[in-house]
Amino acid sequence: MERVSTGIPGMDKILNGGIPRRNIVLLAGGPGTGKSIFGQQFLYDGLLKGENGIFVALEEHPVQVRVNMAQFGWEVKPFEAEGKFAVVDAFTGGIGEAAKRERFVVKTPDDVQNLVDVVRMAIKEVGAERVVIDSVTTLYITKPMIARNVVMQLKKVLSGLGSTSILVSQVSVTERGFGGPGVEHAADGIIRLDLDEINGSLHRSLIVWKMRGTSHSMHRHPFDITDKGIIVHPQKVLTVKQREER
Asked: Is the predicted pLDDT of residue 118 greater than 80, yes or no?
């Protein structure tokens, strides 16, 4: 089994060596759990290893995405200049001066087919081996019943072109699922990030719910967000009380 390193200290150990190549991983979590950071760290690690990548921005301006990555020391502009990395603008609809300078723009972000076509073009032109879409929730939040279909369409393109991909999925703090009916069945892997209050303090943790093609830890592990990115603690296990639906 060929694996792709996440580039996140401690994470590969939980996955017994990394994410199986071509897997589509659903990265689910509530606000403030570090989903975008996880995805961006995964992409930047790939660039350092010679694996080209694209970041599909559905919820943030592409300029802000680059600023956010630079805060962790992940400067992507040199890789963009070399054609090894690209941000797909699925946020602005091409409106604004900055948007006009973007290489890949989804004119109608809520049109799933339009998005899929632009993502396909970007992967081919960049030769992307790693892809992060942040977030797929934006695509089906107004039409929850098409959630699984959206993920399946993306999966055919991403896996078919040989990419190992992370699809960010937003859930509410009290939600126990992964975002969207049936989405979990369409993904090859699911990693859930959580932020829980324990004894008056907030603690971040993650758990791998499933990962096709590999065994993985069945425990919940704490992690930290540092100025260098996410660090997972595979040797530690965090116990939280069962969440109650509200």
From this structure: yes
Residue 99 burial (10 A CB sphere; 0-12, 13-18, 19+)? middle
Inter-residue contact 151 to 166 (CB < 8 Å): no
Does residue 10 carry a pLDDT above 50? yes
pLDDT at 117 over 90: yes
SS3 188: coil
* Cis before 36? omega within 30: no
The answer as to whether 144 is a domain residue is yes
Higher-pLDDT residue of 189, 144: 189
Residue 237 lies in a domain: no
CATH for 217 = 3.40.50.300
Percentage of the chain exceeding pLDDT 90:
72
CA angle 198, 204, 210 (to 5 degrees): 115
Structural domain of 108: 3-232
């991403």: which residue's tokens? 158
Q: Are the CB atoms for 175 and 25 separated by under 8 Å? A: no
**pLDDT confidence of 176, banded at 50, 70, 90?**
low
Nearest C-alpha neighbor of 215 from the set 38, 42, 3 = 3
Per-residue DSSP letter, 10: T
CB 150 within 8 A of CB 76: no
Domain tally, the chain: 1
Question: Nearest to residue 168, comparing CAs of 46, 21, 60, 11?
Answer: 60
* Full DSSP string of 137-175: HHHHSS-GGGHHHHHHHHHHHHHHTT-EEEEEEE--TT-
